[in-house]
Amino acid sequence: MFSGTGFRLGRAAVAAACAASLATPAAVRASEGSEPATAETSEELNSQAQKHASKAVDHFNRGAYVDAEEEFRRVAFFAPNWRPLHFNLAVLAEAQGKLGTAVSEYQAFRPHGSPDEQLLVDQRLDELGRRRERIARTYRRQIGVGASLLTLGLGSLAGGVTSFVFHRKRKDEYAEAMAWNMKNPALPMEATQPKGGLIIAGYWLTLVGVLLAGASAGMLVQAVKSKRKLDSIALGKARLQWAGGAAVQLQF
């Protein structure tokens, strides 16, 4: 009984997940005659694994992908050789934006898939590889621009501080000269009253520095988010939508 139930659960989950697509809907049905590529896997589920697989499918149908993934992880504990396991985990990881995890799970499933399933896995791996490369390029650009803006911002802040320091120094020198001249009118010390140019320059440099530092912080925050995507940390919302039958569409 568990063998037949496990087969149906596995086939239903794989059929639902197989059609995941980032751009357009795709319809894929599990083949009745699909057999694992090796003898290491099985369609059978024991009672504990069956219970968690049923919960996982329920969560999946409600769009609760994090909960579905947790249940499939519990299935892995009780039935580590269940054939559809890694494919289901791959699709759920992809739905959550965990690209590295999705790639690893697809690769783990591929040796045990039918030819049609392997073709689909190859397509998903190619798509995920291109997405990772785009994210990597964006990450490098964000790091470069953010670092440049941070350098300019710190330089501008340093210039502003320097302007204030020089203005203060000239002001102190002028005050000392005036005090000397009052005490020694016969030997006056030449002094020039400082103007407000350095103060104005200091304010502008400080303002520009703060703006550049803020912009660099924003770029670096975006770079961290991109890096987290590359490191398989889920960000943002994703959802699978039924398109009728066994077709689903993955939307970000």
Mind explaining what this structure looks like?
This protein is mainly α and 252 residues long. It has 2 domains: 2-97 and 237-251, no CATH class; 136-230. It contains 7 helices and 2 strands. Strands 1-2 form a two-stranded antiparallel ribbon. The chain is rod-shaped. The two termini are 38 Å apart. Mean pLDDT is 74; it is low at 1-39 and 233-252.
Oligomerization? single chain
Query: Strand sequence of the main sheet, in spatial order?
Result: 1-2
Percent helix, as a range, is 55-70%
The helix/strand order is HHHHHHHEE
Rg, alpha carbons: 32 Å
Structural class: mainly alpha
Whole-number total of structural domains: 2
Low-confidence stretches: 1-39, 233-252
Q: How would a crystallographer describe the biggest sheet?
A: 2 strands, antiparallel
The count of β-strands is 2
Span between N and C termini?
A: 38 Å
Mean pLDDT over all positions: 74
What are the key terms here?
2 domains, transmembrane, two-stranded antiparallel sheet, 7 helices, signal, membrane, TPR-like_helical_dom_sf, rod-shaped, disordered C terminus, Tetratricopeptide repeat protein, mainly alpha, 252 residues
What's the topology here?
Blueprint: H1 2-18, H2 47-62, H3 65-78, H4 85-95, H5 99-109, H6 115-183, H7 197-230, E1 239-244, E2 247-251
Antiparallel strand pairs: 1-2
What's this, in brief?
By secondary structure, this protein is mainly alpha-helical.
